[in-house]
Amino acid sequence: MPAEHTSKQIIGTKSQILRGKKIALCITGSVAAIECPIIARELMRHGAEVYAVMSPAAMKLISPALMEWATGNPVITKLTGKVEHITLAGDHPDAVSLVLVAPATANTISKIAYGIDDTPVTTVVTTAIGAGIPIVVVPAMHESMYRHPIILENLKRLEKYGIEIVGPRFEEGKAKIAHINTVVAKVIERLSKKKDMEGLKVLVTGGPTREYIDAIRYISNPSSGRMGVALAEESALRGAEVTLIYGAGTVEPPFNVQLIKVETTREMLDVALSEVSKNCYDIIICAAAVADYAPKTRVNEKISSGKENLTITLTPLPKVIDAIRIAAPKAFLVGFKAEYNVSKEELIARAIEKLKNANLDMVVANDVSRHDSGFAAETNEVYIVDKQENVYHVPLAPKKVVASKILDLILEKLLEEKEKLAEEQIISHTGEA
User: Fold this and answer.
1) For residue range 106-125, what is the model confidence (pLDDT) as tens digits?
2) Residue 339: which CATH number?
3) Is the CB of residue 77 less than 8 Å from the CB of residue 120?
């Protein structure tokens, strides 16, 4: 028995959210086809098996051998007596879970819209439509082509039949393919069955803030914003309506949330208070690494270099989470507690202290001195403390997985509160009777 293709060793290395899912990646003749090996491998890292299907025009741009290497599976470049389109996208239990057309040219979009099947890609898509398999189309072409009224009409026609469109980025006169993370997030969203946060409004703060010394220099920290982004993205995938107030993070924010960019701690505070005054948020998660101090005065020009000494006076900044608690007393409020090189016992003790001082419902604590769970790491290990001072440990895992565990616990606590309130109301009514 032949050994498994070595490329498949990456399957599930980031998360298992697409475990058991099979995806047909249909590639057409746009130069954005060069992104397809990366798209395929990102889907695989989240647990999916990927099967590439290529049009003749796509094969002029990238080699089928490259896609076979990327996916670890044979590539469909023509339809034969093996009826590959039925094997992949027919109406049977072994069919793919989703068809992803990325990149999709104007030519292919129009053919799909009118049921024209003259390439392996268009035939697979038509078969999938008839079988009721979810389809996601990611356009990429020159901007003038994308703006063509017939192309726009054809995109609307696809949406009418339940096909999802992931819109392009408009840069340099081109309708460039959406960012890879955006494409992958849309696939995950479409295939995610866990919709346990529908009807909930969630506010997340993420990323570091900056406090300026002069026109170009600032005080900050190494936070990448990855944890806040993961929490916002996972909440949205579960069906919540999410707003992300995002500082100067280096991780691309998710496409499926309302994004508000800020830079300083005061800006984050002002935006957060504005949001909670306008909207009734059920859950607020303060994952941002906000600055605690700022220069007393900011010089509105570049301070000349070469000075023998430069003294900067720092003053404390308002606590964002304290202000949010006052403004949103009924929200389930979660704080983060980052400590450096402390014992597990000390970490938990400081989390409990923060829980009480800020009147929080939950605190997530971690030690950022570790290379595998610090600010810039892709993984995290946390201890979660609830209002009853129960401690829950989430072992080292990708931050997406940690975010999912945090949300699971939040929902569990919200359900407990709801049940407790219902019991109190029953007791109250019984007493009145």
Assistant:
1) 999 999 999 999 999 999 99
2) 3.40.50.10300
3) yes
